[in-house]
Design brief:
Elements lengths: L5 E4 L1 H5 L10 H10 L3 E5 L4 H7 L7 E5 L4 E4 L2 E5 L4 H13 L6 E6 L3 E4 L6 H7 L3 E4 L9 E7 L5 H13 L3 E5 L4 E6 L4 H12 L6 E5 L5 H6 L2 E5 L4 H4 L4 E3 L6 H10 L4
């Protein structure tokens, strides 16, 4: 693996443990990888502003692939952004509201904030884990925002079932749609995903996907794992995700990402 030039890492249940904590040595590892000429990429369904807040201490040492591949940012410069047309996100809003409330709560993921119906602010604590900027509205007709993702929060943690029964069949012809954990259904423009972001980075950085390593655990990581040579599914990942990976890393709670990175730094893999 001496040819690796980029490591892409999913966040939830991959880099973060189940308490939402980063490995204590992650900052030191990012610096050590940088010294070896290896770029670290945080590849997440979370928006850029949340990732920038979480990694403010090493922001300039990272590339952010945010909103499941809809945006790529390096040192504050937007390298790529796939904006959803307002007519399209209004159609997504209308479709979501046509379903019963148990099928999910609509969230417009704009570049500046998450726009959420005020009637659903009882889940504020959950939202703020992923969206540090939130705007609650009374009437969606008043919302005029620039957005690159639309997401549906399923408070019953049945995102996969809701996706398979409702959102997938209805939306995947026009949009990219995927589940992100048990509670989120993410919808982006067609052909937008983390895997496509790896190909974008290949062109932008003049490296090949054979020189990339990636870690993931969920359905929104499948394209990314399929795109790179050194693909790692976490031990805690679903079997469907493991089937897309060439390697298995220890679980997120066993510091799987940092363990593999340390082996790489020590020349043991």
């Amino acid at each position: 693996m001496t040819d690796i030039k980029l490591i892409a890492i999913d966040m939830d249940h991959t880099l973060l443990n189940d308490k939402g904590q980063l490995p204590e040595n992650f900052t030191d590892q990012v610096h050590a990888l940088k010294e070896k000429g290896i770029q670290v990429v945080i590849a997440s369904g979370r928006p850029l502003y949340t990732l920038a807040d979480m990694f403010s201490h090493i922001e300039d040492d990272l590339i952010f692939v945010s909103d499941n591949g809809a945006a790529i940012t390096k040192q504050g410069e937007q390298l790529f952004n796939s904006i959803i047309e307002p007519d399209d996100y209004r159609k997504l809003m209308a479709f979501t509201l046509e379903q019963n409330e148990a099928a999910g709560i609509p969230i417009l993921c704009a570049l500046d904030a998450a726009y959420i119906p005020k009637v659903h602010d009882q889940y504020d604590q959950v939202y703020r884990t992923f969206y540090t900027n939130i705007y609650y509205y009374d009437d969606f007709a008043s919302v005029d925002a620039v957005a690159n993702k639309f997401t549906v929060y399923t408070p019953n943690n049945d995102a996969v079932d809701q996706y398979e029964d409702i959102y997938g069949p209805a939306l995947t012809k026009q949009f990219s749609a995927t589940t992100s954990g048990k509670e989120w259904i993410d919808i982006m423009n067609k052909n937008i995903n983390k895997g496509q972001a790896m190909y974008q980075l290949s062109n932008l950085l003049n490296i090949t996907t054979d020189q990339m390593m990636a870690f993931g655990d969920n359905y929104n990581d499948i394209e990314m794992l399929a795109a790179v040579k050194y693909s790692y599914a976490m031990a805690n990942a679903h079997d469907d995700i493991k089937a897309q990976a060439n390697f298995i890393a220890p679980s997120n709670n066993d510091l799987g990402v940092s363990t593999v990175i340390q082996d790489l730094l020590d020349g043991n893999c």
